[in-house]
Amino acid sequence: MTDYLTMTRDAYDTFAETYASEVPARFAKDPVLRSMLSAFAAQVTGPVMEVGCGPGHVTAHLASLGLSVSGTDLSPRMIEVARRTYPDLQFSVASMTALDLADGTLGGLVSWWSLLHLPPDVVPVAFAEFRRVLAPDGLLVVGFAVGDEILRPESAYGHDVTFDAYMRQPKDVEAHLTQSGFAVTATMTIIGPKRPGVVLMAQKQ
């Protein structure tokens, strides 16, 4: 496993319980962000996967919108929490750059701030993998933090951990999507308390 994957997995295994006690509540209080997922749910056909699902709260929200959805995450501990919290849903451990799915399996895929730890040269690899597992005209939703920095915190969620966190510019993400065979169909910008975020919806071409 490459260094960035090991570092990310170990960090999320360490703070999985604390993360699960804080982040889902913030998601539940943000109707603007959830509106893009509602638009996605209204258009997608077929099974959906959330990659980088963490403790499973977004996967569960997608299920509440009537979708046949599963979640996958690099962190085994996060998947343990997700399975415990949402026992009726399916969760698995995997890297988003190597999904255990046949070509054209999914109608939709959601990457909800899960690009955060991917080095810039790995983003096209992930997008190529997303395109591979999507059926023709399949839909993709990608959310990410906006900026130019690369952050390496020494603690998170009350634990001493470290990982690289990559902020991204929307024009760069859109360019990667286009080059990977997607057409961007919708863009949402969120002015957050710390930094802006962007959610893009794109369709496989």
From TrEMBL:
Pfam families xrefs: Methyltransf_25
UniProt key word Cell membrane: no
One Gene Ontology term from the biological process aspect of the record: methylation
Record-annotated Methyltransferase domain positions: 48-138
Keyword tags: Methyltransferase, Transferase
One annotated GO molecular function: methyltransferase activity
SUPFAM superfamilies given in the database record: S-adenosyl-L-methionine-dependent methyltransferases
Top-level taxon: Bacteria
InterPro entries on file: Methyltransf_25, SAM-dependent_MTases_sf
Residues passing through the membrane, by range: none
Gene3D superfamilies reported for this sequence: Vaccinia Virus protein VP39
Name this protein carries in UniProt: SAM-dependent methyltransferase
